[in-house]
Amino acid sequence: MDKRGYSVRMVATVMAGDPSNPVNKLARHCITNLVTVAYVATLLGVSKASVYNWFLGKTKPNKLGLSRVQDALIKLKVE
Question: CA 47, CA 35: separation in Å to the nearest integer?
Answer without folding.
Answer: 15
